[in-house]
Design a protein that fits this description.
With 147 residues, the protein is an alpha+beta fold. 27% of the residues lie in helices and 37% in strands. The termini are far apart.
Amino acid sequence: MPIIGFNFTKLAAEKKEGIISEKIESDLRLIDILPEKIDISNSSEVVRFVFEFEIVYGSAGNALLSGNVLYMDEPKEIKNMLTQWSSNRKIKTELMAQVLNAILFRCNVKALSLEQDVALPPHFKLPRINQKTSDGLEKKPSNPLSN
């Protein structure tokens, strides 16, 4: 069944004094799964996946993105999901992959924007074009943000 909604509830980025020399770490946490009441269809029910995505630049800064994903499925499937989550905080692997990929896609894009706004570097390597010099060696590209 489909993901029918995605919302950010908190967006925060902070650059502290200091040089970013430490490893940049990110963490995605699924906080909770809650039943949701939405009048879309009598044959389907909705749950809300609550998440937090955090990026830590050591002592030099951090970014935190929180929100929720709305997922619709058959009432029996939703009931099983909520029961399984409340008993052992797990859900089916296929569904978890679908939800986490949706969260990562939206959070990574938004995080890049927040990082740029507060002058933090991207939290993952972006594709770059390398040039070959006349002697066949690769020339390292300059940093486009340093100009």
